[in-house]
Amino acid sequence: MQVKIGIFLCDCGGSLRNIDFPKIRGNLEKLEGVAFVDISHNLCLEEGGKALASRILSEDINRVVIAACSPELCEHNFMRLLESLRLNPNFLSIANIREQCSWAHKEDVTGKALELLRMAINKARLLQPLERKEVPVNQEVLVVGGGFSGMESTLELSQLGLRATLVEKGSALGGKLSELEGFYGLGASPKEMLGSMTRAIEEGKNIEVLTSAEVTRVEGEVGNFTVRIRRGGEEFPRSFGAIIFATGYRAGILPRDFELRPSVNIISQRNLIEILQAPEKLERKPETIGFILDVSDESSRLATLLVLNNALAVKEKWGSEAYVFCRNLKVDSDGAEKLYREARATGIAFLKFEKKPQISEEDGRVKVEAKDVLLGEEISLSCDILVVEEKGLPPEGTEALSSILNIGLDSQGFYQNENVYLYPVDSGRKGIFLVGACRGDLDISRASMDVASAVMGVCELLASGKAIVEAEKVRVDPDKCRACLTCIRVCPHGAIRLVRVNTEKEVAQIYDLACEGCGICAAICPAKAIDFEGYTDEQILAEVEAIGE
Amino acid sequence: MGGNNKIVAFCCENSACAAADRAGKIRLYYPDNVRVIRVPCAGRVDVLHILKAFEKGADGVLVMGCQEEACRHLTGNTRARERVKYAEILLKESGIDGERVRMVNLAPEMAHKFAQEVSEMTERLKGLGPTPIKNGGPQR
């Protein structure tokens, strides 16, 4: 098919005054394969679009080059327009002559605009059509972890009509929710919350709960994961379209940082909660209780919330004196500031240290010595019980699961999200979501936010039961592929797999639905067997070529 | 403003392209000798592309990707950095100053950094002059 290029120049309502459009037209018309060069004032408006459409149809061109504003603004619309004209949307090449040319320079930039256009034209000549096709996706969702985040995800999915299977390692649902004593400042008590959630799950439609079960293997890609679940000695495969991980956290006290052994008087938050729940274990009511935060590093949100909660609880139940030693109190989680003010109002003292406090045990009491930097004084406090900070650590098995899933871990061993700033609940692999405490230090309100966004993500992928992909946008040439596995190793999205093409040869194949189109594989392939349509070596070099002209 | 020195900037469409757009939007006037080539991720840029750019008449090459640790595709920017380093070695071996190629990390909002990097490269190229390729091959 002979390439016939139609060029549309848009002067953005006549506002791009430092570009001489007629001159550019004169220059481009002479180029080989160019059918016409049009100057428009408003390609982005309806009338501009109509004019563009009628020109494309009447001249019967097969490549469209548009010089207009940033492709980020207009590319999508023009692609849709081409599609409606039964022209392949990939036959579009855009030169950004507004943001990156006219607006960025004061002087006359006709020369630069012309060069940008030549780059776009060179690329347009090499563009190949991309076929869009529908791929069926499995609408069942697997939720791993039966804590707050997992239960919430399951409930929300079922409300949206998706079938959810909840897999919990323990024998009952609840996770940390069943262990907490109170949520001061958050209304409902954890027990009530757990009760109502469990009831909802039992009554909910489309929900299957598997307790005492574990995920041992995950294969496949978004829309069609095969997961092996082990339960009571037997292992069985199941198919899912998407997976939500809500494996939570493990509470740990850090003896290394305190250089002291937990004893009767030095206890963890968890111990304190146990005592609070069964006060008869206590010989006598503790009069002074110290809490300590931030010894290892800046305290986590979870630890801060827990300390505030527990300090308020001891104050309320026993009327004890409570002191909180901290470095910088982190009150950025939902309700924490209010909780802190409440604690101050009830008479809990907060002491701010900079140097690590000295802790010693004497006569059955614990002595804490620290310098309060606000008072500027050395403080020595003798308390009945010292409650040590608790840190959220990744649960056991995270590492094993991360290697099964091909998802990275962060410096603390939690699951690492794809891009913490842009895609907080997405893992590097499409269709696998990470919510709640398993992706780091999160409080309960943040966890519900996570759940909501992950569920939306799942819906986007699976709700219609099918997905539309650009088939073979990134393509492996089976003749060139030597199955060296380099691409499979580097693919950040786990979208490449090895398939057998005939009896003796295996080659890499890219799974269109899981591919996010970064082109890292195309750049790294030693055999140059991978082509990324739109950004093939030839196309990029063709753009480069225009620079010297 | 930019002189005759050409800069090719391979820009990641997730960050650097947006930064370049923004620089125009807020009228940060920078030298007009830069040509942005949009790539889906800095990791798509191959050593071949960098070297070919010099061969085709570029005097400087910028590879612009997302911030460290914040790559849209996780490892694309670190791979790009490695490749730029490698291209630098190859350039030096062929008698071309390694200063002519540079890896830049920026966020979509960092229009100032985009403009600054382009200006800096332009200044550097003014000092270095056109590439030896333009004068009929490198002089050893």
What does this structure look like?
The complex is a heterodimer of chains A (549) and B (140). Chain A contains 16 helices and 28 strands. With 549 residues, chain A is of the alpha/beta class. In chain A, helix 7 links the parallel strand 7 and strand 8. Chain A is elongated and about 95 Å long. The two termini of chain A are 26 Å apart. The mean pLDDT of chain A is 88. With 140 residues, chain B is α/β, with parallel strands linked by helices. Chain B has 4 helices and 4 strands, in the order βαβαβαβα. In chain B, strand 1, helix 1 and strand 2 form a beta-alpha-beta unit. In chain B, helix 1 crosses helix 4 and helix 2 crosses helix 3. The termini of chain B are far apart. At the A-B interface, helix 4, helix 5, helix 15 and helix 16 of A face helix 1, strand 2, helix 2 and helix 3 of B.
CATH topological fold name of chain B: Rossmann fold
Low-confidence stretches of chain A: none
Assembly type of the chains comes to heterodimer
CATH architecture heading of the largest domain in chain A: 3-Layer(bba) Sandwich
How many whole angstroms does the radius of gyration of chain A measure? Answer: 31 Å
Secondary structure: helix percent of chain A: 25-40%
Number of strands of chain B: 4
Tally the structural domains of chain A.
Answer: 4
Descriptive terms for the model:
heterodimer; A: 549 residues; alpha/beta; Rossmann fold; FAD/NAD(P)-binding domain; 4 domains; 5-stranded parallel beta sheet; 28 strands; 32% helix; B: 140 residues; 4-stranded parallel beta sheet; 16% strand; globular
